[in-house]
Amino acid sequence: MEGENALNLLRSRICDTGFIFKDSSDTNYSKLKFMISTSVAEACNNSILLLGPRGSGKLAVLDLVLQDLLIQYPDSISVVRLNGLLHCDDISAFKEIARQLCMEHQLLFSKAASFDDNSQFMVAVLKECGLAHKTVIFILDEFDLFAQGKQRLLYSLLDAMQSVSSQAVVLGISCRLDADQLLEKRVRSRFSHRKLLFLPPSIEDSQRLLVHMLTLPIDSSLPYDYAVEFNKKVQNIIEDKRFKEIFNKLLNFDSSVKHLLKFLFYAVSHMDLQTGFLSRENFETAFTNIQRQPKLECLKNCSVLELYILVSMKRLEVKEKSLCNFNAVMKEYKNIHDSFQTSDYYARNVCLRAFEHLLHRELLCFTDNRGHSLSVEFRPVKLLISSAELHQGLKAYQSCPAILQKLVERDG
């Protein structure tokens, strides 16, 4: 029972962005909330860029801030959201702004309205909102895509904010740290040049977040002795040498907060509910599951014949014949069959189709682009999977012939 309650608590924490990003007064959450709330309270215009790599928490923090501000100023904030992947051209952007403003203020939206009509409507609404002491917050996700072309949307928005009567905040979100440098001179001169950087946490910060997420409160509904023992075991895991190796590999692969939370969710989900405690094996399983292994996934869907072709090519590599063609692979395939008297032997035309299938799956590739005039059988190819990946894939393949695993182990 304690294990299930602890599992639910930890899962809810990992999914709760507020628990993750509201733990300090010196965070981007606090800074952004101060900037926007000041603009709303003092009826002034502002433009801010949130910059950082994907998974660093830009949108999560912004959504938290907006949730709080909509509670604090329920009748003084209107939000318009655009995404550069959908609305990067000016016509669709202004149409979407007009549509959202019409929904917000219960007005009739005209699909037939022209670009100029929608632009003038936006400026008029901004002035009306300013007179009503209501701030319109424009969120431009993938901001760098709006900075392409003539940048009429950005210019119109920022130019309208120069008016005394308008009241708006423009929030640009981008993975490009130089997003402000993409702006034209006329746009840049109207921009407030406020930026918040969302950088991946350091190893120490990631460890602190790990402890913060996994430490159970001792003054909760959970039994005191259980919570103390749980926290002690978590601390022992964190100090374990093998866990530190796994954690460092995880951060080297992707140090973003999003990736760390995904890792923790996998680990917590594998917790043994009978004992009610986390173990190092839970984190090892989570690390294995979270790693992207597209080549191993391809191997799972290969036929037995395709596995023979891959092993034949691997044997040619061991013999220092890394550059070979289909004919050379067929000779090695025949050698395996003759040496071990395997029952898996197929006709040449069947093998050629399997060979082409491996090329299509990008487990093999042609070594250059100069042999287009040659038949597939004669064009040199190379293997795109390592010995370790091939060995691991064969072990996971349920109906893999035992001889193939032995060949890879012996040659590897």
Offer a concise description of the structure.
The chain is an alpha/beta fold and 412 residues long. The chain has 21 helices and seven strands. Helix content is 57%, strand content 9%.
How do the strands of the widest beta sheet line up side by side?
2-3-4-1-5
Strand content: 5-15%
Shape verdict: flat
Number of strands: 7
The major β-sheet equals: 5 strands, parallel
The amount of helix comes to 55-70%
CATH class of the largest domain: Alpha Beta
Task: Evaluate the radius of gyration.
Answer: 29 Å
Overall number of structural domains: 3
Which structural category fits the helices and strands? alpha/beta
Structure description:
With 412 residues, this protein is an alpha/beta fold. The chain has three domains: 43-197, P-loop containing nucleotide triphosphate hydrolases (Rossmann fold, 3-Layer(aba) Sandwich), CATH 3.40.50.300; 203-292, no CATH class; 296-411, Arc Repressor Mutant, subunit A (Orthogonal Bundle), CATH 1.10.10. It is built from 21 helices and seven strands. The protein has helices at residues 2-15, 17-21, 28-41, 58-72, 84-87, 90-104, 115-131, 143-146, 152-160, 185-188, 203-214, 224-239, 241-253, 257-269, 280-290, 294-300, 304-318, 326-340, 348-360, 387-396, 402-411; strands at residues 46-51, 77-83, 135-141, 168-174, 194-197, 364-366, 381-383. The strands form two sheets. A five-stranded parallel beta sheet has the order 2-3-4-1-5, sandwiched between helices. A two-stranded antiparallel ribbon has the order 6-7. Helix 16 (294-300) packs across helix 20 (387-396) and helix 17 (304-318) runs parallel beside helix 21 (402-411). The longest helix is centred in the N-terminal third of the chain and has 17 residues, at 115-131. The protein is flat and about 90 Å long. It starts with a helix and ends with a helix. The model has no long low-confidence stretch (mean pLDDT 87).
